[in-house]
Amino acid sequence: MSARKQQLLKRHRKHKRLVLLGALVILVLFGIFVAWWPLPLFLLLGWVAHEAWFADHLFYAPGDDYRYDFAPGTPQFPVTLLMDRLQVTGDFAEAETLVLQLRIKSNWLGRLFDPHVWIGEDRQDLERGVDGERFLNLSGQGVALAAGQLSLRGRLCSVAQQATLHALSNPDYGQQRLMIVAPHADDAELAAFGLYSRAAEVSIITLTQGEIEAENYRNLGLDATQAARLKGRLRSWDSLAVPLWGGVPQQHCVQLGYYCLQLSAMAQQPEQGFASRESGESDIRERRRNNPLKLPGDLDGLPNWRNLVADLARSLEHFRPEVVVTPHPELDPHSDHVASTRALLEAIEISAWRPRTLLLYANHLHDNDRWPMGPAGYGIALPPTIEPLPADALWSPSLGAETRLDKAMALGMQHDLQGRPPLKKRLRRLIQRILAGRRWPATGEDEFFRKAVRRHELFWVRPLDRPVNDDRR
């Protein structure tokens, strides 16, 4: 977790404690001056209300405007909403990625239930109490939009009659040689299964073995060290085997075997080895036995930054990708994700092969743990951006129903996404289903089955013919 997100979470918890303290004072005064017997009922109702309507981690005000700076030269077209139909002035026929910027305001029911917008047959959800500029994803609906037949209707919210369409044109990156940098097993599937399952040629490089937080495996009678080692073996296997479901052969998958949540520390001291926090292991070679190529880190097995960068440079030279898919260094706050892209950028500088384009993805956010909001299967609106990002282009390919199902099955094969959520989370979901109308998919109980299996995948496009921010936070 990044320092910024830690600060946001700390502030969120502080405010929650103050609210709870205030409520407790009121209840005590009520008990003293009125009656004690209703207090247990009040406490129960307060807890239920919290779980239904106030449990989301939303680290910004719903009335804040999102802020996006599109790449220079991005075509923009005025749009009018007339009788629930979008009317665009101008010709955007060459663009495949379409983003509609407009102002949305929830009504009072939109503070209790999730407000959303129907765009044709697609649905994109927003924050409760939304009141500001938002960016909806119209990609895949260009034909209906150009014909003036694309409907747009707000539910539990009102939408402005005037809007702006940002129309972005990209090549089909799925027809170029791809490399996907995955900090952990499952990151490639979460971000880009739809893309890589139809790609002409793709390689997947997984940086860590995913051994930490192995408490569930202790139920098998293992101690903490044994559980972490088993989990590391399983997730390393996932990184090599699951891509075959999407058509990627094992000889195009590489597991580097570094240790979770150690990449940032490695970057600070490049020559020092950083062993696993939980498994007791310190030699990365054990997880590399099935790799299709020899790597520099195979010589000494040290889990250090120097080896990581050299491994990535060798992978670039071996697979010669034209496009590399990697975490967004400014948007995705996970420390391993930030460090992964930093290592990639350093590897590009020393490699004999230089790709042309980065496609950046975000599997986590600073500000909103529910994004993409709303039920599985629908589109991905652009994420919250209260602090502006670099002015990148966007590419948002569409996924058909069959691909979405295959993506859900690929996630179901990942050991880290299996099993039931904790009891507290299951109770919260039950309360939200009954009182707030939220729904979760039947394909899996982990939150990523809702967030990742969508009508779109979303990438920020950053050419490598200009400087790239490696975000050394």
Sum up the structure in keywords.
473 residues, disordered C terminus, six-stranded antiparallel sheet, GlcNAc_PI_deacetylase-related, Rossmann fold, alpha+beta
Average predicted confidence as pLDDT: 92
Estimated helix fraction: 25-40%
Task: Say what oligomer this is.
Answer: single chain
Distance between the termini: 11 Å
Please name the CATH topology of the domain at 177-364. Answer: Rossmann fold
Query: Strand order, biggest sheet?
Result: 12-11-10-13-14-16-15
Total strands: the figure is 16
Based on CA atoms alone, the radius of gyration comes out at 24 Å
The top-level CATH class of the domain at 177-364 is Alpha Beta
From the helix content, strand content and strand pairing, which structural class follows?
A: alpha+beta
Estimated share of beta-strand residues: 15-25%
Order of helices and strands: HHEEEEEEHEEEEHEHEHHEHEEHHHE
- What summary fits the major beta sheet? 7 strands, mixed
Number of helices: 11
Transmembrane segments: 20-39
InterPro entries: GlcNAc_PI_deacetylase-related (IPR003737), LmbE-like_dom_sf (IPR024078)
Keywords: Membrane, Transmembrane, Transmembrane helix
Pfam family, one: PIG-L
Write the layout of secondary structure elements.
Blueprint: H1 3-33, H2 39-54, E1 76-82, E2 85-88, E3 97-106, E4 116-119, E5 122-125, E6 131-137, H3 142-146, E7 152-155, E8 157-159, E9 162-168, E10 177-182, H4 187-196, E11 201-208, H5 224-241, E12 253-258, H6 263-268, H7 305-319, E13 323-327, H8 335-350, E14 357-361, E15 393-395, H9 401-413, H10 423-436, H11 447-452, E16 459-463
Parallel strand pairs: 10-11, 10-13, 11-12, 13-14
Antiparallel strand pairs: 1-2, 1-9, 3-6, 3-8, 3-9, 4-5, 4-7, 14-16, 15-16
